[in-house]
Design a protein that fits this description.
The chain has 274 residues and is an alpha/beta fold. The protein is 38% helix and 22% strand. The protein has 2 domains: 6-242, P-loop containing nucleotide triphosphate hydrolases (Rossmann fold); 246-274, no CATH class. It is built from 11 helices and 10 strands.
């Protein structure tokens, strides 16, 4: 069975205060898929992805990576297979330099120093950050931090890449750079995001969560044209799939008009100008 496969089976999770965050989620993501997990705030997105490499342990059900269930005994192997990039890159960047941050994971895997250096240089080159390898992370921009956090995961050579809110807090230029980078990956990719235009561009499949349950799982364009579903889940169509507000206003005005033939009116106006 593929090491890249991710499967949740009746996954449920309760927070220590008894709040139910996930209420029995099941899905299967195949080798090489790019899948988005979307939903309003509090839907359970971040809680779900923190189960995918064992940062949280299920109250009920299980997660499997390939044919391996996530358990206390399998955690080291799972975390080598599944790379998780947190929503806030500052949660992952804590070393004196960019190089040290990206080297942290492979070094803790017990790899020799020359292999660690090779992986770090390759990962930084891939995300376009090689020139900043000696810079302190706290002096990076938000987009640069996100790229370094991704490089730190790539340096561990995971089979599955999971990113929580990839474009959160980025300006338009940094967002576009990051989208180009993510589109190049051939990993199994799982994203959570409120940026539904990013989802539309990168992910052929979308899973919609609400109140800790799967409300829809299917082709992204089909999901985003189900307006009743989107309303129920407190979502809206991506901007790329919304009609032009100005055109809609003009059309509504015409439909609500007094029945005058607008083509004739425009013709008369042009005639009056001659």
């Amino acid at each position: 069975m593929s090491r890249h496969l991710v499967e949740a089976r009746d996954l449920a999770y309760d927070y220590p205060d008894g709040t139910r965050a996930l209420g029995g989620i099941s899905f299967r993501i195949a080798h090489g898929e790019a899948v988005a997990i979307v939903g309003a705030n509090g839907a359970g997105k971040s809680t779900l992805i923190h189960h995918l490499n064992g940062h949280l342990s299920a109250t009920r059900g299980e997660v499997r990576i390939g044919d391996v269930p996530i358990t206390r005994d399998t955690l080291p192997a799972i975390r080598r297979r599944v790379g998780l990039v947190f929503q806030d890159a500052d949660d992952q960047l804590f070393m004196p330099t960019v190089f040290d941050d990206v080297a942290f994971g492979p070094a803790n895997q017990g790899l020799p120093a020359d292999e660690v250096a090779r992986r770090v240089d390759g990962a930084l080159l891939r995300v376009g950050m090689a020139a900043l390898r000696d810079k302190p992370p706290y002096r990076l921009s938000g987009g640069e931090k996100k790229r370094v956090a991704i490089a730190g995961v790539l340096a561990m050579a995971p089979d599955v890449l999971v990113i929580d809110e990839p474009t959160g807090g980025l300006d338009p230029h940094a967002r576009r750079q990051l989208l180009r980078l993510l589109a190049e990956f051939t990993h199994t990719r799982i994203f959570t995001s409120h940026d539904l235009d990013m989802v539309l561009e990168l992910c052929p499949r979308t899973i919609v969560l609400a109140r800790g349950r799967v409300m829809a799982d299917g082709p992204t364009r089909e999901v985003f044209t189900d307006d009743a579903l989107l309303r129920e889940c407190r979502l809206e169509r991506p901007l790329a799939m919304q009609s032009c507000p100005l055109c809609s206003a003009v059309r509504r005005k015409q439909e609500e008009g007094d029945g005058t033939d607008h083509h004739v009116d425009r013709g008369r106006s042009r005639a009056g100008l001659r």
